[in-house]
Predict the 3D structure of the following.
Amino acid sequence: MGVNTRALGFASGIIAAATFIVCGLLVAIAPGATSSFFGWVLHIDLSSLARPISLSNFLGGLALFSVFVGFCVAAVGWMYNKLTPPSQFEGA
């Protein structure tokens, strides 16, 4: 049985949007601490890369990130369906 690529992509886009919103809120509330934390997680110095968040770049990033993640995960689901052999029990 294959995966529903549309549902998988849509669900991934929703989760990506929620993650982006939480990240944006953290950057807006505590930009220094958030940069330090993600720098620690990624093992790079992000302190010089501080960027102001405006409503337009937040909404644009939210839309682009969510659509991109949804598309990529839907593509993974499509590829999974193509690479998975049909079950001998399907249709029985």
About this structure: Residues 14 and 66 are 7 Å apart (CA to CA). The chain has a mean pLDDT of 89. Helices lie at 5-29, 31-42, 55-83. The radius of gyration is 18 Å.
